[in-house]
Amino acid sequence: MRRAGIGEAINDRGRQVRVLVTFPQNKPPRSALSLYSFFHKVGAEVYLKSLDDVPCYEFEKYDAVVLRGVPYNLDPVALNAISICMEKTLVINNPKSMILARDKYGSIEVLKRSNLPVPRTKLVRSRKELVDAIVELKIAVVKPLSSSLGIGVQLVTEKSLGFFLSHFPFKFNAVVQEYIEKVRDVRVFVIGDEAVGAMYRISPLSFVTNYSQGADLDPAPIEPYKEIAVRATKALGLEYAGVDLIESPDGPKVIEVNPSPQWIGLSKILRKDIALILAKYVVTRANEVKTGSEK
């Protein structure tokens, strides 16, 4: 039997590569539908299901599972059980790596220990710790320990601290990150060993530059950012990611790494089908695993 080429959806047993695209919502998000369509285009046998509708025994029936997020309210024990269910198949991205990346403090610590440049970041768990952190940093970005799309992110100064504290309970978990002045940041989309696209996210009237929050987009060069973006993705054990960088006087720094990034804005601004590149990558990885040629 001939070996499949890059992106060819035939495995060593001569049948189509079987792929499951799964998601935490009740209905498939736009990104899952897009992937589903592109897997069809590359000839894969593709299925689309909510994570809640996939029984444990079913995961091993697939050559690859593309996990488009895990539920935010999933407790650690349930997550561990689901991860064990997935151990017999290729999962992109691995759920444990996704949870690490979604932890906005833990992921920054891992990146820092991997000698990647990151802003000063603190985990605070009480009002006193929050006050101490803001007093030290003077101005800082305060984030939920886990969130996406820029939701819940606030810019806090010593002057605004009193008003900000009035909205907090006495005990909580939050991340306080050094504020680096900007009007834009950089999103780099990494798949495997490659940075496949980059864009500037520009928001002159707000420090939040997420596309979902209304930021403007411009194409960005890949070369200045690709090495740090690929290293950050690998440090967290991810196979694809959206790496957010900020340009500082000391060079680019990693703000965070999104383990289930959106690609609609990037595809539009670059006129490039990011979902197609991802679908081809998943099929290639599945073939590598099945033929024993995995690196």
What does this 3D model show about the protein?
The chain has 295 residues and is an alpha+beta fold. The protein has 3 domains: 94 residues, Rossmann fold (3-Layer(aba) Sandwich), CATH 3.40.50; 58 residues, Dna Ligase, domain 1 (2-Layer Sandwich); 78 residues, D-amino Acid Aminotransferase, Chain A, domain 1. The strands form 3 sheets. The protein has a 5-stranded antiparallel sheet with strand order 11-10-9-12-13, sandwiched between helices. Strand 3, helix 2 and strand 4 form a beta-alpha-beta unit. Helix 1 crosses helix 9. The longest helix has 18 residues. The two termini are 21 Å apart. The N terminus is likely disordered.
SSE layout:
Layout: E1 18-23, H1 30-41, E2 45-50, E3 64-67, H2 76-85, E4 90-92, H3 95-102, H4 106-113, E5 121-126, H5 127-137, E6 139-144, E7 154-157, H6 161-165, E8 171-178, E9 184-191, E10 194-202, E11 216-219, H7 226-235, E12 240-248, E13 251-258, H8 264-270, H9 274-291
Parallel strand pairs: 1-2, 1-3, 3-4
Antiparallel strand pairs: 5-8, 6-7, 6-8, 9-10, 9-12, 10-11, 12-13
Helix pairs in contact: 1-9
Characteristics:
D-amino Acid Aminotransferase, Chain A, domain 1; globular; 9 helices; Rossmann fold; single chain; alpha+beta; about 300 residues; Dna Ligase, domain 1; about 30% helix; 5-stranded antiparallel β-sheet
